[in-house]
Amino acid sequence: MKLFDQFARNISYLRVSVTDRCDLRCVYCMKEKMTFLPKNEILTLEEIERLCDNFIELGVKKIRLTGGEPLIRKDIIKLIKKLNNKKNNTNLKEITITTNGTLLEKYALDLKENGIDRINISLDTINKEKYKKITRFGNLEKVLKGINEALKNNIKVKINTVAMKDFNEDEFEELIIWADKLNIDITFIEVMPMEETDNDRHMQFLPLNEVYNNLDKKFSFYKIDKNTGGPAKYFKSNKISINVGFITPITNNFCANCNRVRLSSTGKLYMCLGQNDYVDFRNILRNDHS
Ligand code: SAM
Ligand code: SF4
Fold this sequence. Notes:
By secondary structure, the chain is α/β, with parallel strands linked by helices. The protein is 29% helix and 20% strand. It contains eight helices and twelve strands. The chain has a twelve-stranded mixed beta sheet. Helix 1 packs parallel to helix 2 and helix 3 runs parallel beside helix 5. The relative contact order is 0.14. The mean pLDDT is 90. Residues 22, 28-29, 66-67, 69, 98-100, 122, 160, 162, 189, 191-192, 194 line the site of S-adenosylmethionine. S-adenosylmethionine (SAM) binds next to strand 3 and strand 5.
C-alpha cells in the first residue's frame, strides 16, 4: 500500500523531529530563553519507532531525523540502530539526520556503524565570532571537528546555510570555496519567519535569486537535474567540483514535487511546512489499548 496526500503526491519521505530541545539558540529559530515542552508531551523512542513502522509499511523509504537537535536526544543511537535494522526487511532504504554538528565528533563513528551514510549539517558562517553571534553561544571549532570526524568515517556531508542580510551575505563565496576544498555540497536556504524567536525576520530576509545572481558572476553556474523530491535546486560550476543548492521557500513555490511529510516531537503529522493542519498521532497512540 502507498501513501498519497490529497494532491495525489506519493509520500515516500518522513522527517521526524525527535526532540524540541537544542544545545544552541540560533536567532532565527529559537528565543534566547526557551521554555521547552514537558518530557511526557514528547514521543518516547518506542512511540517514534512504532510510527515509523507504520509509515514504512505505507511506502516511506527515507527517514530524516531532526529536531531541535537530534543528537542531544538520549539514546538516539539506539533508535537509529533499530531503524537501521528495518532496512533489511522493509521498504526503508535510507536514514539521515540534520544536525547542528556540535556533537558529531562524539557520534560520527556510532552513526556510521548504524547505517547513517549521509548527514546535513547546518552552518551559517565559518567565522568564529559570527558563529557565536548567530547561535548565541556556539563554538565553531566543535562543529568543524565534527565535520572532519564525519568525513573521516566516510559519511557524506552536506552543509545547509541560512542566508541572512547583513550577516553572512559577504561570506557565501568563501563558504562555497571552503566546502569545495572539503568536497562537500552546500545549500543556501531563505530565512523563514518563525513565531518562536525574538528577532524581526524582515530585517534579515535576503532573496536567494539575488544571492544566486551575485554568485553566478563568479562561478557561472549551470543547472543540474538532481531531483531529491525536496525543495532545492542544484547547480554546478566548472570552477568547483561540488553541487551548490538553493532552497527558496519564500520567493519560489516548489510544492508540486514535494514527497515529504513531517512528524513533530509531540507526534503531530504535518503534511506541509507552510500549513498548520495536522493529525495528532500521540493521542491515537496513547489511547490505543490493542
Ligand atoms: N538542530 C538541527 C540543525 O540545526 O541542523 C536540526 C533542526 S533545525 C530546525 C533544521 C534546519 O532548519 C536547520 O538547517 C536550520 O538552519 C533551519 N532553520 C531553522 N530556522 C529557520 C528559519 N527561520 N528559516 C530557515 N531555516 C531555518
Ligand atoms: Fe538548534 Fe537547529 Fe534551531 Fe539552531 S536551527 S537553534 S541548531 S534547532
